[in-house]
Amino acid sequence: MTPPASTVRRRRTASASAAPSCIPPAEFAQRRESVLRALTREGGALGLVVAGDADPSLTAAWRPNPNFEYLTGITDESGAMLLFCPSHPVAARRVQLFLKPLNPELERWDGFRPAVDAALKKRYGVATILRTDAFARALLESAKRSKRLACLHPFAAHTAPVSPDLAIFKESAARIPNASIVDLSSLLPAMRSVKSKAEVAMMQRAADITAVGFEAARAAATPGRTEFDVQEAAEHAYKTAGASSTAYRTIAGTGFNATVLHYHANTAPLKDGDLLVLDSGASFGGYAADVTRTFAVSGKFTARQKLVYDTVLKSQLAAIRACRAGAQMSAVDAAARKIITAAGFGDHFIHGIGHHLGLEVHDADPQTALEPGMIVTVEPGIYIPEESLGVRIEDDVLITKGTPKVLTNAIPK
Ligand code: GLY
Ligand code: MN
Protein backbone atom coordinates (compact mmCIF):
# COMPACT_ATOMS: atom_id res chain seq x y z
CA MET A 1 0.00 0.00 0.00
CA THR A 2 1.41 3.41 -0.96
CA PRO A 3 1.38 5.86 1.95
CA PRO A 4 -0.56 9.10 1.37
CA ALA A 5 1.62 11.77 -0.29
CA SER A 6 1.33 14.14 2.67
CA THR A 7 2.80 11.48 4.99
CA VAL A 8 5.70 10.85 2.64
CA ARG A 9 6.49 14.54 2.44
CA ARG A 10 6.37 15.02 6.17
CA ARG A 11 8.51 12.00 6.88
CA ARG A 12 11.03 12.78 4.19
CA THR A 13 11.80 16.12 5.72
CA ALA A 14 12.28 14.61 9.17
CA SER A 15 15.92 13.83 9.86
CA ALA A 16 17.00 10.22 10.23
CA SER A 17 18.95 9.24 13.33
CA ALA A 18 22.21 11.17 12.86
CA ALA A 19 24.50 10.94 15.90
CA PRO A 20 25.01 14.35 17.52
CA SER A 21 28.37 15.81 16.64
CA CYS A 22 30.08 18.49 18.72
CA ILE A 23 32.12 19.52 15.70
CA PRO A 24 30.73 22.69 14.09
CA PRO A 25 29.73 22.49 10.39
CA ALA A 26 32.36 25.17 9.65
CA GLU A 27 35.10 22.75 10.73
CA PHE A 28 33.90 20.11 8.29
CA ALA A 29 33.88 22.82 5.59
CA GLN A 30 37.48 23.76 6.49
CA ARG A 31 38.53 20.11 6.17
CA ARG A 32 36.97 19.93 2.70
CA GLU A 33 38.73 23.19 1.76
CA SER A 34 42.06 21.64 2.83
CA VAL A 35 41.40 18.68 0.55
CA LEU A 36 40.54 21.04 -2.33
CA ARG A 37 43.79 22.94 -1.78
CA ALA A 38 45.84 19.73 -1.78
CA LEU A 39 44.11 18.58 -4.98
CA THR A 40 44.80 21.96 -6.58
CA ARG A 41 48.49 21.50 -5.76
CA GLU A 42 48.19 18.06 -7.38
CA GLY A 43 47.41 19.68 -10.76
CA GLY A 44 43.69 20.16 -10.12
CA ALA A 45 43.10 16.42 -9.71
CA LEU A 46 39.65 15.12 -8.77
CA GLY A 47 39.19 13.33 -5.45
CA LEU A 48 36.47 10.96 -4.37
CA VAL A 49 35.56 9.82 -0.84
CA VAL A 50 32.85 7.20 -0.37
CA ALA A 51 30.68 6.33 2.63
CA GLY A 52 30.28 2.66 1.73
CA ASP A 53 27.24 0.41 1.72
CA ALA A 54 25.23 -0.64 4.74
CA ASP A 55 25.31 -4.28 5.81
CA PRO A 56 21.74 -5.57 5.40
CA SER A 57 22.30 -8.55 7.75
CA LEU A 58 21.47 -6.72 11.01
CA THR A 59 24.64 -8.10 12.61
CA ALA A 60 26.35 -4.79 13.33
CA ALA A 61 25.56 -1.09 13.45
CA TRP A 62 26.58 0.65 10.22
CA ARG A 63 29.18 3.37 10.19
CA PRO A 64 30.39 5.21 7.14
CA ASN A 65 33.96 4.98 5.97
CA PRO A 66 35.85 7.15 8.51
CA ASN A 67 37.28 9.38 5.76
CA PHE A 68 33.74 10.21 4.67
CA GLU A 69 32.64 10.78 8.28
CA TYR A 70 35.68 13.02 8.87
CA LEU A 71 34.89 15.22 5.87
CA THR A 72 31.11 15.44 6.28
CA GLY A 73 30.01 14.42 9.80
CA ILE A 74 27.26 12.45 8.05
CA THR A 75 26.77 9.05 9.66
CA ASP A 76 23.39 7.90 8.33
CA GLU A 77 23.66 7.98 4.53
CA SER A 78 24.99 4.67 3.26
CA GLY A 79 25.99 4.78 -0.40
CA ALA A 80 26.85 8.50 -0.23
CA MET A 81 29.89 9.93 -2.06
CA LEU A 82 31.83 13.17 -1.90
CA LEU A 83 33.41 14.36 -5.16
CA PHE A 84 36.08 17.07 -5.18
CA CYS A 85 36.51 18.99 -8.45
CA PRO A 86 39.04 21.73 -7.58
CA SER A 87 39.04 23.35 -11.02
CA HIS A 88 35.29 23.36 -11.60
CA PRO A 89 34.41 26.76 -13.13
CA VAL A 90 31.47 27.10 -10.74
CA ALA A 91 32.88 27.52 -7.22
CA ALA A 92 29.79 25.99 -5.59
CA ARG A 93 30.37 22.78 -7.59
CA ARG A 94 33.93 22.18 -6.42
CA VAL A 95 32.56 19.95 -3.68
CA GLN A 96 29.61 17.75 -4.67
CA LEU A 97 27.81 15.47 -2.25
CA PHE A 98 25.87 12.57 -3.75
CA LEU A 99 23.16 10.83 -1.73
CA LYS A 100 21.22 7.73 -2.71
CA PRO A 101 17.78 8.51 -4.18
CA LEU A 102 14.88 8.36 -1.75
CA ASN A 103 13.08 5.04 -1.66
CA PRO A 104 9.96 5.23 0.54
CA GLU A 105 9.39 1.46 0.44
CA LEU A 106 12.92 0.65 1.62
CA GLU A 107 12.81 3.47 4.13
CA ARG A 108 9.83 1.85 5.88
CA TRP A 109 12.45 -0.72 6.93
CA ASP A 110 15.54 1.36 7.39
CA GLY A 111 14.25 4.79 8.44
CA PHE A 112 13.06 7.80 6.48
CA ARG A 113 15.64 10.06 4.89
CA PRO A 114 15.51 13.79 4.20
CA ALA A 115 14.75 15.46 0.89
CA VAL A 116 17.48 17.52 -0.74
CA ASP A 117 16.51 21.09 -0.07
CA ALA A 118 18.00 24.34 1.23
CA ALA A 119 17.70 23.14 4.83
CA LEU A 120 19.71 19.99 4.12
CA LYS A 121 22.39 21.97 2.26
CA LYS A 122 22.63 24.30 5.25
CA ARG A 123 22.77 21.41 7.72
CA TYR A 124 25.61 19.70 5.86
CA GLY A 125 27.27 22.98 4.80
CA VAL A 126 27.48 21.70 1.22
CA ALA A 127 26.06 23.87 -1.58
CA THR A 128 25.77 21.06 -4.13
CA ILE A 129 23.88 17.94 -3.10
CA LEU A 130 22.81 15.60 -5.87
CA ARG A 131 21.46 12.09 -6.05
CA THR A 132 23.84 9.24 -6.85
CA ASP A 133 22.11 8.59 -10.19
CA ALA A 134 23.72 11.86 -11.38
CA PHE A 135 27.22 10.76 -10.26
CA ALA A 136 28.48 9.03 -13.44
CA ARG A 137 27.77 12.08 -15.60
CA ALA A 138 29.20 14.51 -13.05
CA LEU A 139 32.42 12.49 -12.77
CA LEU A 140 32.76 12.25 -16.55
CA GLU A 141 32.28 16.01 -16.98
CA SER A 142 34.90 16.86 -14.38
CA ALA A 143 37.33 14.12 -15.42
CA LYS A 144 37.21 15.31 -19.06
CA ARG A 145 38.29 18.72 -17.81
CA SER A 146 40.98 17.76 -15.29
CA LYS A 147 42.25 14.45 -16.74
CA ARG A 148 43.79 13.78 -13.33
CA LEU A 149 42.27 11.58 -10.63
CA ALA A 150 43.83 11.43 -7.16
CA CYS A 151 43.27 8.49 -4.81
CA LEU A 152 42.42 9.60 -1.26
CA HIS A 153 41.41 6.26 0.26
CA PRO A 154 44.12 3.88 1.51
CA PHE A 155 45.20 1.24 -0.97
CA ALA A 156 44.02 -2.33 -0.53
CA ALA A 157 46.15 -5.48 -0.35
CA HIS A 158 45.95 -7.62 -3.48
CA THR A 159 43.75 -10.09 -1.59
CA ALA A 160 41.15 -7.43 -0.68
CA PRO A 161 38.71 -5.48 -2.89
CA VAL A 162 40.34 -2.55 -4.71
CA SER A 163 39.97 0.67 -2.70
CA PRO A 164 36.67 2.31 -3.63
CA ASP A 165 37.93 5.48 -5.32
CA LEU A 166 40.60 3.60 -7.28
CA ALA A 167 37.98 1.11 -8.54
CA ILE A 168 35.82 3.94 -9.91
CA PHE A 169 38.76 5.99 -11.21
CA LYS A 170 40.17 2.99 -13.10
CA GLU A 171 36.85 2.50 -14.89
CA SER A 172 36.66 6.21 -15.62
CA ALA A 173 40.28 6.61 -16.77
CA ALA A 174 39.85 3.66 -19.15
CA ARG A 175 37.26 5.74 -21.01
CA ILE A 176 39.14 9.06 -21.14
CA PRO A 177 42.31 9.31 -23.26
CA ASN A 178 45.30 10.74 -21.38
CA ALA A 179 43.59 10.52 -17.99
CA SER A 180 46.00 9.62 -15.20
CA ILE A 181 45.53 8.36 -11.64
CA VAL A 182 47.81 9.72 -8.92
CA ASP A 183 48.39 8.80 -5.29
CA LEU A 184 47.24 11.24 -2.62
CA SER A 185 46.47 8.56 -0.04
CA SER A 186 48.75 10.15 2.55
CA LEU A 187 46.63 13.32 2.75
CA LEU A 188 43.72 12.20 4.92
CA PRO A 189 45.86 10.25 7.44
CA ALA A 190 47.97 13.41 7.85
CA MET A 191 44.87 15.55 8.38
CA ARG A 192 43.00 13.08 10.59
CA SER A 193 45.97 12.37 12.85
CA VAL A 194 46.22 15.98 14.09
CA LYS A 195 43.11 16.55 16.15
CA SER A 196 41.36 19.91 16.37
CA LYS A 197 40.29 21.43 19.68
CA ALA A 198 36.77 20.12 19.13
CA GLU A 199 38.07 16.62 18.43
CA VAL A 200 40.31 16.64 21.50
CA ALA A 201 37.30 17.69 23.59
CA MET A 202 35.28 14.78 22.20
CA MET A 203 38.10 12.33 22.85
CA GLN A 204 38.50 13.65 26.39
CA ARG A 205 34.77 13.04 26.84
CA ALA A 206 35.18 9.47 25.53
CA ALA A 207 38.07 9.01 28.00
CA ASP A 208 36.05 10.40 30.92
CA ILE A 209 33.11 8.12 30.12
CA THR A 210 35.54 5.21 29.93
CA ALA A 211 36.79 6.13 33.41
CA VAL A 212 33.26 5.72 34.76
CA GLY A 213 33.07 2.30 33.09
CA PHE A 214 36.41 1.16 34.52
CA GLU A 215 35.32 2.13 38.02
CA ALA A 216 32.23 -0.05 37.64
CA ALA A 217 34.30 -2.83 36.10
CA ARG A 218 36.81 -2.77 38.95
CA ALA A 219 33.98 -3.23 41.46
CA ALA A 220 32.69 -6.20 39.44
CA ALA A 221 36.10 -7.89 39.16
CA THR A 222 35.80 -10.11 42.23
CA PRO A 223 36.05 -13.88 42.78
CA GLY A 224 32.87 -15.70 41.78
CA ARG A 225 31.95 -13.21 39.06
CA THR A 226 32.84 -13.77 35.40
CA GLU A 227 34.75 -11.97 32.67
CA PHE A 228 31.34 -11.23 31.17
CA ASP A 229 30.17 -9.51 34.39
CA VAL A 230 33.17 -7.17 34.15
CA GLN A 231 32.51 -6.43 30.48
CA GLU A 232 28.82 -5.79 31.22
CA ALA A 233 29.61 -3.48 34.14
CA ALA A 234 31.95 -1.37 32.01
CA GLU A 235 29.72 -1.20 28.95
CA HIS A 236 26.54 -0.50 30.92
CA ALA A 237 28.29 2.39 32.66
CA TYR A 238 29.51 3.78 29.31
CA LYS A 239 25.96 3.92 27.98
CA THR A 240 24.60 5.44 31.18
CA ALA A 241 27.35 8.08 31.12
CA GLY A 242 26.47 9.14 27.57
CA ALA A 243 28.60 7.00 25.23
CA SER A 244 27.31 6.48 21.73
CA SER A 245 28.65 2.90 21.81
CA THR A 246 31.67 0.88 22.81
CA ALA A 247 34.61 1.82 20.64
CA TYR A 248 35.58 -1.81 19.92
CA ARG A 249 34.92 -5.30 21.26
CA THR A 250 35.86 -5.39 24.94
CA ILE A 251 38.65 -7.76 25.93
CA ALA A 252 38.16 -9.10 29.48
CA GLY A 253 40.62 -11.94 30.06
CA THR A 254 41.55 -13.57 33.32
CA GLY A 255 44.36 -16.03 34.12
CA PHE A 256 45.65 -17.62 30.90
CA ASN A 257 43.14 -15.57 28.88
CA ALA A 258 44.99 -12.41 29.94
CA THR A 259 47.89 -13.58 27.76
CA VAL A 260 45.76 -13.73 24.59
CA LEU A 261 46.08 -10.28 23.05
CA HIS A 262 42.69 -10.03 21.38
CA TYR A 263 40.77 -12.48 23.60
CA HIS A 264 37.04 -11.97 23.10
CA ALA A 265 35.14 -14.94 24.56
CA ASN A 266 34.81 -13.18 27.95
CA THR A 267 33.07 -16.15 29.59
CA ALA A 268 35.48 -17.54 32.22
CA PRO A 269 34.88 -17.25 35.99
CA LEU A 270 37.20 -14.98 37.98
CA LYS A 271 39.39 -16.81 40.46
CA ASP A 272 41.26 -15.70 43.56
CA GLY A 273 44.94 -15.24 42.71
CA ASP A 274 44.40 -14.49 39.02
CA LEU A 275 44.93 -11.23 37.16
CA LEU A 276 42.33 -9.75 34.85
CA VAL A 277 43.24 -7.69 31.77
CA LEU A 278 40.42 -5.35 30.80
CA ASP A 279 40.95 -3.63 27.42
CA SER A 280 37.90 -1.53 26.64
CA GLY A 281 36.76 1.94 25.63
CA ALA A 282 33.72 4.09 25.05
CA SER A 283 32.99 5.96 21.88
CA PHE A 284 31.63 9.49 22.01
CA GLY A 285 30.32 11.12 18.84
CA GLY A 286 32.29 8.55 16.86
CA TYR A 287 35.61 9.16 18.66
CA ALA A 288 37.22 6.28 20.54
CA ALA A 289 38.89 5.81 23.87
CA ASP A 290 41.12 2.73 24.17
CA VAL A 291 42.21 1.79 27.68
CA THR A 292 43.68 -1.26 29.38
CA ARG A 293 44.03 -1.91 33.07
CA THR A 294 45.14 -5.07 34.85
CA PHE A 295 43.39 -5.92 38.11
CA ALA A 296 44.20 -8.55 40.76
CA VAL A 297 40.93 -10.44 41.21
CA SER A 298 41.56 -10.91 44.94
CA GLY A 299 42.60 -7.26 45.26
CA LYS A 300 46.17 -8.32 46.09
CA PHE A 301 49.08 -9.07 43.72
CA THR A 302 51.48 -11.97 44.40
CA ALA A 303 55.18 -11.03 44.46
CA ARG A 304 55.62 -12.40 40.91
CA GLN A 305 52.56 -10.55 39.60
CA LYS A 306 53.79 -7.36 41.28
CA LEU A 307 57.21 -7.68 39.64
CA VAL A 308 55.64 -8.04 36.20
CA TYR A 309 53.07 -5.31 36.84
CA ASP A 310 55.66 -2.84 38.10
CA THR A 311 57.88 -3.53 35.09
CA VAL A 312 55.01 -2.83 32.68
CA LEU A 313 54.03 0.30 34.59
CA LYS A 314 57.60 1.60 34.66
CA SER A 315 57.96 0.94 30.94
CA GLN A 316 54.65 2.63 30.20
CA LEU A 317 55.57 5.77 32.15
CA ALA A 318 58.90 5.94 30.28
CA ALA A 319 57.10 5.52 26.94
CA ILE A 320 54.60 8.27 27.82
CA ARG A 321 57.50 10.58 28.66
CA ALA A 322 58.90 9.81 25.19
CA CYS A 323 55.68 11.00 23.51
CA ARG A 324 57.17 14.30 22.43
CA ALA A 325 56.60 16.35 19.29
CA GLY A 326 59.25 15.30 16.77
CA ALA A 327 59.68 11.77 18.14
CA GLN A 328 58.85 8.72 16.03
CA MET A 329 56.55 6.04 17.49
CA SER A 330 59.55 3.69 17.17
CA ALA A 331 61.33 5.82 19.82
CA VAL A 332 58.29 5.55 22.10
CA ASP A 333 58.36 1.77 21.58
CA ALA A 334 62.09 1.65 22.28
CA ALA A 335 61.67 3.54 25.57
CA ALA A 336 59.27 0.88 26.86
CA ARG A 337 61.10 -2.09 25.37
CA LYS A 338 64.40 -1.09 26.96
CA ILE A 339 62.91 -1.35 30.46
CA ILE A 340 61.03 -4.59 29.80
CA THR A 341 64.12 -6.17 28.21
CA ALA A 342 66.40 -5.05 31.06
CA ALA A 343 64.00 -6.73 33.51
CA GLY A 344 64.36 -9.99 31.54
CA PHE A 345 60.90 -10.02 29.94
CA GLY A 346 61.88 -8.87 26.40
CA ASP A 347 60.53 -12.01 24.71
CA HIS A 348 57.18 -11.52 26.42
CA PHE A 349 56.44 -8.05 24.98
CA ILE A 350 55.15 -9.32 21.66
CA HIS A 351 53.40 -6.33 20.11
CA GLY A 352 54.07 -2.71 19.22
CA ILE A 353 53.77 0.09 21.76
CA GLY A 354 50.61 1.66 20.38
CA HIS A 355 48.73 3.31 17.56
CA HIS A 356 46.94 6.49 16.57
CA LEU A 357 43.45 6.90 17.99
CA GLY A 358 40.47 8.85 16.70
CA LEU A 359 37.41 7.98 14.63
CA GLU A 360 38.89 4.49 14.43
CA VAL A 361 40.40 2.66 17.36
CA HIS A 362 43.41 1.84 15.19
CA ASP A 363 43.21 5.21 13.50
CA ALA A 364 44.68 6.43 10.22
CA ASP A 365 48.47 6.37 10.60
CA PRO A 366 50.39 9.21 8.94
CA GLN A 367 53.68 7.30 9.49
CA THR A 368 55.43 10.52 10.43
CA ALA A 369 56.94 11.91 13.61
CA LEU A 370 54.58 12.87 16.42
CA GLU A 371 53.10 16.37 16.29
CA PRO A 372 51.10 18.46 18.75
CA GLY A 373 47.43 17.47 18.45
CA MET A 374 48.10 13.81 17.68
CA ILE A 375 46.59 11.25 20.05
CA VAL A 376 48.22 7.85 20.42
CA THR A 377 47.85 4.88 22.73
CA VAL A 378 50.76 3.73 24.86
CA GLU A 379 50.21 0.10 25.79
CA PRO A 380 53.15 -2.09 26.75
CA GLY A 381 52.46 -5.58 28.04
CA ILE A 382 54.14 -8.73 29.31
CA TYR A 383 52.49 -12.07 28.52
CA ILE A 384 53.71 -15.36 30.03
CA PRO A 385 51.25 -18.09 28.95
CA GLU A 386 53.09 -20.85 30.84
CA GLU A 387 52.39 -18.95 34.07
CA SER A 388 48.85 -17.85 33.02
CA LEU A 389 50.13 -14.36 33.68
CA GLY A 390 49.40 -11.37 31.47
CA VAL A 391 49.70 -7.65 32.22
CA ARG A 392 48.96 -4.72 29.91
CA ILE A 393 48.51 -1.06 30.79
CA GLU A 394 47.21 1.34 28.16
CA ASP A 395 46.50 5.07 28.14
CA ASP A 396 45.51 7.61 25.50
CA VAL A 397 48.09 10.36 25.14
CA LEU A 398 47.74 13.79 23.53
CA ILE A 399 50.97 15.14 22.06
CA THR A 400 51.53 18.80 22.96
CA LYS A 401 54.31 21.32 22.44
CA GLY A 402 55.66 20.25 25.83
CA THR A 403 54.74 17.53 28.30
CA PRO A 404 52.32 14.95 26.88
CA LYS A 405 48.78 15.02 28.29
CA VAL A 406 47.31 11.68 29.33
CA LEU A 407 43.57 11.85 28.56
CA THR A 408 42.87 8.71 30.57
CA ASN A 409 44.72 9.72 33.75
CA ALA A 410 41.50 9.55 35.78
CA ILE A 411 41.63 5.74 35.56
CA PRO A 412 43.84 4.45 38.39
CA LYS A 413 46.80 2.22 37.64
N1 GLY B 1 42.37 -2.18 22.09
C1 GLY B 1 42.90 -3.21 21.31
C2 GLY B 1 44.08 -2.84 20.52
O1 GLY B 1 44.55 -1.73 20.57
O2 GLY B 1 44.58 -3.67 19.76
MN1 MN C 1 45.00 -0.07 21.78
In short:
The chain has 413 residues and is α+β, with helices and mostly antiparallel strands.
Cα-atom Rg, whole angstroms?
24 Å
Helix and strand element order? HHEHEEHHEHEHEHHHEEEEEEHHEEEEE
Outline the low-pLDDT stretches: 1-19
Number of strands: 17
Contiguous helical run count: 12
Largest sheet: 6 strands, mixed
Bound molecules: glycine, manganese (II) ion
Mean pLDDT: 94
Order of strands, widest sheet: 4-3-2-1-5-6
What distance separates the N and C termini?
60 Å
Strand percentage: 15-25%
- Give me the CATH superfamily of the largest domain: Creatinase/methionine aminopeptidase superfamily
* CATH A-level architecture of the largest domain: Alpha-Beta Complex
- What is the level 1 CATH name of the largest domain? Alpha Beta
Whole-number tally of structural domains = 2
CATH-defined topology of the largest domain:
Creatine Amidinohydrolase
Fraction of residues in helices?
A: 25-40%
* Alpha-beta classification: alpha+beta
Overall shape: elongated
Draw up the topology in text.
Elements: H1 5-13, H2 25-41, E1 46-50, H3 66-72, E2 81-84, E3 95-99, H4 104-110, H5 118-124, E4 128-131, H6 135-146, E5 148-151, H7 164-173, E6 180-183, H8 187-193, H9 197-220, H10 227-240, E7 245-246, E8 251-254, E9 275-280, E10 282-284, E11 287-288, E12 291-296, H11 303-321, H12 329-342, E13 375-378, E14 381-384, E15 389-392, E16 395-398, E17 405-406
Parallel strand pairs: 1-5, 3-4, 5-6
Antiparallel strand pairs: 1-2, 2-3, 7-10, 8-9, 9-12, 10-11, 13-16, 14-15, 16-17
Helix pairs in contact: 9-10, 11-12
The structure holds glycine and manganese (II) ion.
